[in-house]
Amino acid sequence: MQKNKPVVKKKTISAKQTQRHVHEFEGSTKLAEAGADRHNHRFAGVTGQAIRVGRSHVHEIDLTKTDFVNHFHNLRRIRTGPAIPVG
Ligand SMILES: [Zn+2]
Ligand SMILES: [Zn+2]
């Protein structure tokens, strides 16, 4: 019998936990139109909660507005790809 048991910290996520993780995101649109009207927009927000898809998960962004110059655009119903491991 080993007297001094190694301390193992377990990170367990309760199955009852309904709150799933989200991501913050930001970016900018590509330049649109030509000439004087050429412009782009920046946007930022928080994704929806993780949605299980097979062994991975995706997120949806229901609605985000871009910043505005003299107008703005809506980003609607965007679905991310599955998680990409980065270590
Ligand atoms: Zn995620
Ligand atoms: Zn625009």
Could you state the order of secondary-structure elements as H and E? EEEEEE
Q: Name the overall outline.
A: elongated
Bound molecules: zinc ion
**Structural class assignment:** mainly beta
- Give the proportion of residues in helices: under 10%
Mean pLDDT: 84
Terminal Cα span: 36 Å
Counted by DSSP, the helix tally is 0
DSSP strand tally:
6
Order of strands across the widest beta sheet?
1-2
Largest sheet: 2 strands, antiparallel
Strand content: 25-35%
What integer value in Å does the Rg equal? Answer: 21 Å
Unreliable residue runs: none
Structure description:
- The protein has a domain at 24-30 and 39-79.
- The protein contains no helices and six strands.
- The chain has strands at 24-28, 42-46, 51-53, 56-58, 60-65, 74-79.
- Strands 1-2 form a two-stranded antiparallel sheet.
- Strand 3 and strand 4 form a beta hairpin.
- The structure holds zinc ion (ZN) (2 copies).
Summary?
This protein has strands spanning 24-28, 42-46, 51-53, 56-58, 60-65, 74-79.
